From TrEMBL:
Pfam assignment, any one: EF-G_D2
Family classification: Belongs to the TRAFAC class translation factor GTPase superfamily. Classic translation factor GTPase family. PrfC subfamily.
SUPFAM superfamilies in the cross-refs: EF-G C-terminal domain-like, P-loop containing nucleoside triphosphate hydrolases, Translation proteins
The protein, known as: Peptide chain release factor 3
Any GO BP annotation: regulation of translational termination
Subcellular locations according to the entry: Cytoplasm
Keyword set, alphabetical order: Cytoplasm, GTP-binding, Nucleotide-binding, Protein biosynthesis
Tr-type G domain sequence ranges: 9-275
GO MF annotation list: GTP binding; GTPase activity; translation release factor activity, codon nonspecific; translation release factor activity, codon specific
Keyword GTP-binding: yes
One Gene Ontology cellular component: cytosol
PROSITE patterns cross-referenced by the UniProt entry: G_TR_1, G_TR_2
NCBIfam families named among the record's database cross-references: prfC, PRK00741.1, small_GTP
C-alpha cells in the first residue's frame, strides 16, 4: 500500500479556465481519454445530458446545465489528477471564482484565432490573486490562427504575466504539421488518428536533412528561423512559473489531439503537488498526517425530496477516512462527514479515503458555510476565508406579497449566508427591500427558484444599471448625506460594511471629488 507521502505527492489539482468555446471541454475530455477515465471523446458532454434525468435541481433540468462547477478525478502515469471545471456562458457564477480557491494551478485555454477574451481575463485575475502557476494552452491550431508570437505578446500585455513558449507550432490550419519541443529540441510531427484517439507522432531533429520532406520546404525555413529567434529570448525559469510570474505556453489542437499529450506530460511535471496552506495559526503542511479541509462550495437541494445540501471541500492536509471523527471549527462541533463522495469522470461515488489535494463532497445538514474549516479534534486553526468577488449585475428585490415579509427576510439572509448571492440594504433601512448582487445571471435564476420553492416567496425583481461595487474604506460623514451621481448608490452588507455600486470610472471620479474624506478600496474581491 502506498504511504501517505506517496499518495499526496502524486496529487495534482488544477482548474481549467477559458472563455466559452475556446475548447475547455474538448481538452478536458482528451485528458480523461489519456487517463483511461473515458473510452471515447464525447463522454464529458454526454454527462451533462444524463444529469437531466437525475434528481438535481429543477432548474438544472430545465436548462440542461450543471449549475455549479464540478470536479473530475482520474489517474495518469502514476499521477492522481483532480480537474476543477469552471463553467462559462450563462452558468458562470460566484462558484466559478471560488472553485479557483481550491486549485493548485490553472490551465488557461486560449483560442488561437481569438486570443485573450473577457472571461479569460476575469478568471486569470482571480488565479493571479493567489499567485498560482498558470499554464497557457493555445488551442485550435488546426484552424487559421493569429501569429504565435503576437499571441504570446497579447497574453503578456493583457494579463501582465511573462510567457515562455515551451513548444512552437509548425504552421496552422490545414498546414498545422506539429510542434517543435524546445526542451527536447525535437520536432513532433503529428498525423491524424481520428478525433477520438491519441495523435500519432513522428519525431525529427531540427537539422534533419529529411525535414523538408516531412513538413515542407517553406515551413522548415520558417521553423528554423523562428527557433533561432526564440533562442534569443529569456531563459526558462521554473521558480517564476511556480509563483505565477511566468506562464509556459503550449500550442496544439484539442480536437485533433495534436500536442495534447506532450502538453499533459510537461504540465504534470511542472505543476506542483499540494502545497502548504495558510491558516490563522501559520502554514499547514499538506503532508502532515492530520486531515484538514476547507469548504469552497455548497450546492443546495440537489434532491428536492430531501432538501439536502452538498458541501464541497478541498482537502489541504493529511488523509480523510470515512469512519473517522472530525472537527468543524466554525461551529465547534465534532462530527462524522457523511456520504463522502468523489466525482469521477462520469459519476459520483462514495469514498472511504481521500488525500490532500482531493476534493470531496459531503452531506451538509445545514451547518457549513463557504470558507469553513474542518480539522481533526484538538486542532482549531482556520484557513483564511474565501473572499467575496465584486458583483457585476444588480437587481432590486422585494417580495411580491408584502404579507410574506418575514419569510422573505429569512430566505434572502440564509441564501446569502450560503454564498449563493450577495445582498445589500440601503443605509438606515431594513432587509425587506434589498439589492442583490451577482457575478453571473444564473445566480438570479437560482435565487428566484429557491425563494419560491424553499420559502414560498414570489419575488419582484428589477434590474439596476450598476456594474461595479467598491468598498468604502473610510468616510467621516453620514453615509445618507453623501453626494452621489445619478448612477451610483451607497449600500450596506450583512457584515455592516459600506459599498458604492456604480457604473463606470467617471462615477468614481465624481464621488471622490465631491465627498472629501472618502477612501475607497480598489481590491478585486470585496
Ligand atoms: P468550451 O466552451 O471552452 O468548453 O469549448 P468546447 O470544448 O465545447 O469547444 C467549443 C467548440 O470548438 C466545439 O465545437 C469544439 O468541437 C471546437 N473545438 C475545440 N477544440 C478545437 C480544436 O482544437 N480545433 C477546432 N477546429 N475546433 C475545436
Amino acid at each position: 500500500m502506498a504511504s501517505l507521502k506517496e499518495e499526496i505527492s502524486r496529487r495534482r489539482t488544477f482548474a481549467i479556465i477559458s472563455h466559452p468555446d475556446a475548447g475547455k471541454t474538448t481538452l478536458t475530455e482528451k485528458f480523461l481519454l489519456y487517463g483511461g477515465a473515458i473510452a471515447q471523446a464525447g463522454e464529458v458532454k454526454g454527462k451533462r445530458a444524463r444529469a437531466a434525468t437525475s434528481d438535481w435541481m429543477e432548474i438544472e433540468k430545465q436548462r440542461g446545465i450543471s449549475v455549479t462547477s464540478s470536479v473530475m478525478q482520474f489517474r495518469h502515469n502514476g499521477f492522481c489528477i483532480n480537474i476543477l471545471d469552471t463553467p462559462g456562458h450563462q452558468d458562470f457564477s460566484e462558484d466559478t471564482y471560488r472553485t479557483l480557491m481550491a486549485a493548485d494551478s490553472a490551465v488557461m485555454v486560449i483560442d488561437g484565432a481569438k486570443g485573450v477574451e473577457p472571461q479569460t481575463r476575469k478568471l486569470f485575475k482571480v488565479c493571479a490573486l493567489r499567485h498560482i502557476p498558470i499554464f497557457t494552452f493555445v488551442n485550435k491550431m488546426d484552424r487559421e490562427t493569429r501569429d504565435p508570437l503576437e499571441l504570446c505578446e497579447e497574453v503578456e500585455r493583457e494579463l501582465g504575466i511573462a510567457t515562455y513558449p515551451m513548444n512552437w507550432p509548425i504552421g496552422c490550419g490545414r498546414e498545422f504539421k506539429g510542434v517543435y519541443d524546445r526542451e527536447k529540441k525535437r520536432i513532433l510531427h503529428f498525423t491524424d488518428a481520428g478525433h477520438a484517439q491519441k495523435a500519432a507522432v513522428t519525431e525529427a531533429e531540427l537539422d534533419d536533412p529529411a525535414l523538408p520532406e516531412l513538413i515542407g520546404e517553406k515551413l522548415t525555413d520558417i521553423l528554423r528561423d523562428d527557433v533561432e529567434l526564440l533562442g534569443a529570448g529569456a531563459e526558462f525559469d521554473l521558480e517564476a512559473v511556480r509563483c505565477g510570474k511566468l506562464s509556459p505556453v503550449f500550442f496544439g489542437s484539442a480536437l485533433t489531439n495534436f500536442g495534447v499529450e506532450p502538453f499533459l506530460e510537461s504540465f504534470l511535471r511542472m505543476t506542483p503537488p499540494p502545497l502548504s496552506r495558510q491558516s490563522d495559526e501559520g502554514l499547514v503542511d499538506a503532508f502532515s498526517p492530520d486531515f484538514s479541509a476547507f469548504v469552497f462550495k455548497i450546492q443546495a437541494n440537489m434532491n428536492k425530496a430531501h432538501r439536502d445540501r452538498l458541501a464541497f471541500m478541498r482537502i489541504c492536509s493529511g488523509k480523510f477516512e470515512r469512519e473517522a471523527e472530525y472537527y468543524h471549527v466554525q461551529s465547534g462541533k465534532k462530527m462524522r462527514l457523511s456520504q463522502p463522495q468523489a466525482m469521477m469522470a462520469a459519476e459520483r461515488e462514495i469514498v472511504d479515503e481521500a488525500y490532500a489535494g482531493d476534493i470531496i463532497g459531503v452531506f451538509d445538514p445545514g451547518i457549513f458555510s463557504i470558507g469553513d474549516t474542518v480539522t481533526v479534534p484538538g486542532k482549531k486553526f482556520r484557513y483564511s476565508g474565501i473572499p467575496s468577488f465584486e458583483p457585476e449585475l444588480f437587481r432590486s428585490v422585494s417580495p411580491k406579497d408584502t404579507m410574506k415579509r418575514k419569510q422573505f427576510i429569512k430566505g434572502v439572509q440564509q441564501i446569502a449566508q450560503e454564498g449563493a448571492i450577495q445582498i445589500f440594504k440601503f443605509p438606515g433601512s431594513g432587509y425587506e427591500d434589498i439589492v442583490v448582487g451577482v457575478v453571473g445571471a444564473l445566480q438570479f435564476d437560482v435565487f428566484e427558484y429557491r425563494m419560491r420553492s424553499e420559502y414560498g416567496v414570489e419575488l419582484r425583481m428589477e434590474g439596476l444599471p450598476y456594474s461595479h461595487l467598491i468598498r468604502i474604506k473610510g468616510y467621516e460623514g453620514d453615509y445618507r448625506d453623501m453626494t452621489l451621481c445619478t448612477d451610483s448608490r451607497v449600500l450596506q452588507d450583512l457584515r455592516d460594511r459600506y459599498f458604492i455600486a456604480y457604473c463606470g470610472a467617471w462615477s468614481l471620479g465624481f464621488l471622490t471629488k465631491h465627498n472629501p474624506g472618502l477612501v475607497l478600496d480598489d481590491q478585486l474581491s470585496v
